[in-house]
Here is the input.
Amino acid sequence: MTDRIQRACSVLLATAALCSAALLYCAGDNAASAFAGRTDAAQGAGGGTGPLSGMVIAVDAGHGGYDGGAVGRVTGVAEKELNLDVARRVAALLGEAGASVVMTRTEDIALCDDDPPIRKKLQDMQRRAAIITQAGADMVLSIHMNEYAGRSQSGPQVFYREDCPAGRLLAGAIQEAMITGLSPKKKRAALGGDYYILTLGVPSALVECGFLSNREEERLLCTEEYRQRVARSIAEGVSAWAQLDHPEPLPAVDRSGEPGAQ
Here is the structure.
């Protein structure tokens, strides 16, 4: 029975990979529109009663495809895999709390062409931003894993757009919830930072869930139980934020002059 299940799963995964490849091939230079078109289905989740009812929340799984992100020092696990898993879990929990959720990616792909006229990373970020903007998102949560040259650094770290009161409040609520829910040895404070994904004119937070360069934290992040705790802490932070009075976010950064901008 186990062998049959494993074979079936392998077939399903292979089919999904072929479909993804076909999508990318057919999309070509219009890939941004193709990816943006997928947000309608993603937004179907949630939308009921709950503390987040009426909100559209974008959940961005960092990296993907050619861009693996950080790498676990012991297991060699790619950050992109853990980001996507946690992002899916966060999306499910936010949906249960009543939010409509849009994800920038639901597969191991980069949102860029194979040979774009601009830097791959820039095109990827532009397309993530387009998905979020076109969905009319009220909030952005970008999921990542951290790393450092040394092995001693640990603990979740949440970033917000520098000098943005709305982002600072959201990041602070998530940071506090992660400290409560995960009991990390290193209890960090939310910090301001300069990140593309946080400049779209809505309350936003970039969540570094833990350090893949730390042996113990890498071990924890490689378990489903801990990743679920991470996701639940993030969702609880968002729900706590929803009960607060919210300052206005900074306006979106005008990127119309960037290469490749539509």
User: Anything to note?
Assistant: Residues 2-27 form the longest helix (26 residues). Helices lie at 2-27, 31-37, 39-42, 79-96, 120-134, 165-182, 215-221, 224-242. The beta strands are 56-61, 100-103, 139-146, 157-161, 191-193, 204-211.
